[in-house]
């Protein structure tokens, strides 16, 4: 149950787009379309942003989008805004009927 | 609206036990699988365990298998986490989270309860 691999940090200026990658294996990310993404602000609970690779829950801005290719999933945030500054985590269902998270990526809006 | 409220956290000595609770409201608790996820101070999220809607199926992360037990009481809309043989590395904020019926993600989270394992 090794954690999924995410970059430790990414940054972008307001209005720009950024992409966060999430790399796993064929037993998790690559084996299922069950990748989800969570946003967490300091001291707060995580918030679901994307589920099943590319689906947005009601209420989440369409500036957030997800995709997957092979064992790597990606979260793209377009039109960066100050309030997007947060930690982002990917998660995947696994072949062991368990879940695994990525190590998290800190997004800084410059 | 969906609400999940964790309780039971606190300071506990290494080797001792603690039971966390998560009280649910605003949805049909008995229809949803539920998870526990923890976050050590300054660290990332760690999935720990899931229980099926009726309690018949449970899965655990290797890090807690054999020490932690998940359970639920659907008559009380409450999820539990029994933690035994606690270690300093179990120090974390513990979140309960709902798994929507038929899906594979966490759609609602509680606010978390802090467990500190220290002598």
Describe this structure in words.
The complex is a heterodimer of chains A (110) and B (119). With 110 residues, chain A is mostly beta strands. Helices cover 0% and strands 44% of the residues of chain A. Chain A has no helices and 9 strands. In chain A, strands 1, 3, 4, 7, 8 and 9 form a 6-stranded mixed sheet that branches. The radius of gyration of chain A is 13 Å and the shape is globular. Chain B is mainly β. Chain B is globular, with a radius of gyration of 13 Å. The N and C termini of chain B lie far apart (40 Å). The model of chain B has no long low-confidence stretch (mean pLDDT 96). The interface between A and B is medium-sized, with 27 and 22 residues.
Number of strands of chain B: 11
The proportion of strand residues of chain A reads 35-45%
Question: Which stretches of chain A are poorly predicted, pLDDT < 50 over at least 5 residues?
Answer: none
Number of helices of chain B: 0
In N-to-C order, the SSE pattern of chain B is EEEEEEEEEEE
- Structural class, judged by helices and strands of chain B? mainly beta
Rg of chain B computed from alpha carbons, rounded to a whole number of angstroms: 13 Å
Report the end-to-end length of chain A measured between terminal Cα atoms.
34 Å
Mean pLDDT across the residues of chain A is 97
Radius of gyration of chain A, Cα only, in angstroms?
13 Å
Give a quick account of the main beta sheet of chain B: strands, pairing sense, barrel closure: 7 strands, mixed
Estimate the global geometry of chain B from the Cα principal axes.
globular
Shape of chain A: globular
Helix content of chain A: under 10%
How many beta-strand segments of chain A?
Answer: 9
Summarize model confidence as the mean pLDDT of chain B: 96
- Describe the main β-sheet of chain A briefly: 6 strands, mixed
Helical residue percent of chain B? under 10%
Oligomer: heterodimer
